[in-house]
Amino acid sequence: MALKREFLSTNEVAELLGITPFTIRRYIQLRKLKAVKLEGSYRVRQTDLEQFLKAREVETEEELAAQEIEKPPAHAPRQRANLVAKTRVARPVPQSKRKPKARAPRRQ
């Protein structure tokens, strides 16, 4: 009967994911991955690692295509608002906020 370990070291997590232990420690310091610090070294719970990976899971193209089919059609008012936002003309900069023109050097 094999015992299931609850905590993994940063080296073990890095080996499982195929990245460096430095990257795992950086994720921990940035609070992206939960961990416990025991006697100077970090330990990661397997459940926390699973949550970390699930949150970063990328959907396949088939899943995205299925979502597009289920998606309701876009509303016309939203499209009009986007069109108006794209066609706005930039306002001229007031004279007081313009940068002074560079002067040519004087001849002597």
List the keywords.
Multidrug-efflux Transporter Regulator, Chain: A, Domain 2, 5 helices, 108 residues, three-stranded antiparallel beta sheet, mainly alpha, 45% helix
Task: Describe the structure concisely.
This protein has 108 residues and is mainly alpha-helical.
> Overall pLDDT, averaged?
79
- Main sheet: strands, sense, barrel: 3 strands, antiparallel
Write down the Rg. 28 Å
Order of helices and strands: EHHEEHHH
CATH class of the domain at 7-55: Mainly Alpha
Q: Number of helical runs?
A: 5
CATH architecture of the domain at 7-55: Orthogonal Bundle
Shape: elongated
How many strand segments?
Answer: 3
Q: Proportion of β residues?
A: 5-15%
Q: Residue share in helices?
A: 40-55%
The computed structural class is mainly alpha
Measured between the Cα atoms of the first and last residue, the distance is: 96 Å
- Stated plainly, the CATH topology of the domain at 7-55 is called Multidrug-efflux Transporter Regulator, Chain: A, Domain 2
Q: Provide the spatial order of strands within the biggest beta sheet.
A: 1-3-2
Taking pLDDT < 50 over at least 5 consecutive residues as the criterion, the unreliable ranges are none
